[in-house]
Request: fold
Amino acid sequence: MCAFHRDDNHQLCVDGLLLSNIINQYGSPIYVYSAAGIIDAFTKFQTAVSPVNGKVHFAMKANSALGILALINKLGGGMDIVSIGELARALAAGCKPNDVVFSGVGKTAADIQEALTCGIGQINAESAAEVAAISSIAANMGVIAPVALRVNVNVDPGTHAKISTGQLDTKFGISTNQHEVSDLYQKMADDPHIIPTGLAVHIGSQISNLAPFEQAYSALLALAIDLRDAGLPVPNLDLGGGVGVDYKNAEPTNFDAYGALVKKLFKDQGFKLGFEPGRSIIANNGVLLTRVIYVKQGENKRFIIADAAMNDLLRPTLYEAYHPIWTLAAPDVLTGKADIVGPVCETGDYLGLNRDMPEVNGGDGLAVMSAGAYGAAMASNYNSRSPAAEVMVIKGSAHLLRAARPIADYINDEHIPDLTHFR
Ligand SMILES: *Cc1c(COP(=O)(O)O)cnc(C)c1O
Reply:
């Protein structure tokens, strides 16, 4: 069952707590996460990859609230980061540097230096130029950098184009065509400032079919075996994230088939395996609560104007993503289609289009379901709106993870130059 569900009176609740109570107490809009749901998903993922002794690094770009990172850290999760800002957050949440993997195509010299200074577990390099940069920075610092190569095995993950990363025409990874990867890996092994730690692959996100994983993982395995047969050390294989979730029904993700595939391919092959799930751990364990401001009957359709917008949850606008939208109160009979939109001045600012909705009125609470991943993490200050605060429900009580930043704080960060000579 989804962590968020209707109680016996058909009120939307989480862990025995009414969502209407949370919105009354904390205001609107607000993100609400279920600790029990996160624990359940993370534990199920760990269990699914336990036959191959997989180490799980949470892809924290999906949700980087410190309270969530600390919870996942407690469950034994490391972190997959894509920036130095994320490194700072991972460490602030109590994660050990050695449990952090640094991904991304564009790490600057300063980023690499900071990662090596703190003793990062592994850097996943994505180009020959990056490997050269890591080598010279490590040499200057007098350290040995742990580096894996992220490879591009040219697999179409069959997902939205903006979250596909596995094909040759994306910016990600080093092509396994020709001999680029093996030559570079050999070079790393010969480099006194680098310790090669293996290979990594991540072909995309929201992948709902196992075939692309099988194709990519088989290619990765074949390459790893080739390198090992050539006498090179290949201790780790990092299999990335990307497992899709059921947005339509907001049901917990079942990792059994994914785990079985990984076991079939990698069991007893002699590699240590790492995983980087993000979305599948957190998406269905968070919701965005919003209040209806107005209902407007347009010429051709009904608009439900809510106080959450694209600056709080960008996914509908950016990816045409579908999030179920439920009333917090017991749902009445459906009274026809409606667009649920926010106050931001863009036609693309919507939470849901053409939804069958009951009658709702100003002040009513709504829940945008399955908003835990790439929701709060992508929020912005657009239209000078302060993004929604975040709370997590732990054993039936709500805990504030992050307050909404007062607009005054944004203003205080800014400076007005001396403009007197324009007078
Ligand atoms: C985004 C990302 C992930 C997580 O992907 P999900 O679809 O959220 O599981 C994992 N690894 C890398 C390198 C990523 O960029």
Remarks:
- The chain has two domains: 4-32+283-412, 35-282.
- The pocket of pyridoxal-5'-phosphate is lined by residues 59, 61-62, 80, 82, 103, 202, 205, 240-243, 276-280 (CB under 6 Å).
- The CA atoms of residues 198 and 236 lie 5 Å apart.
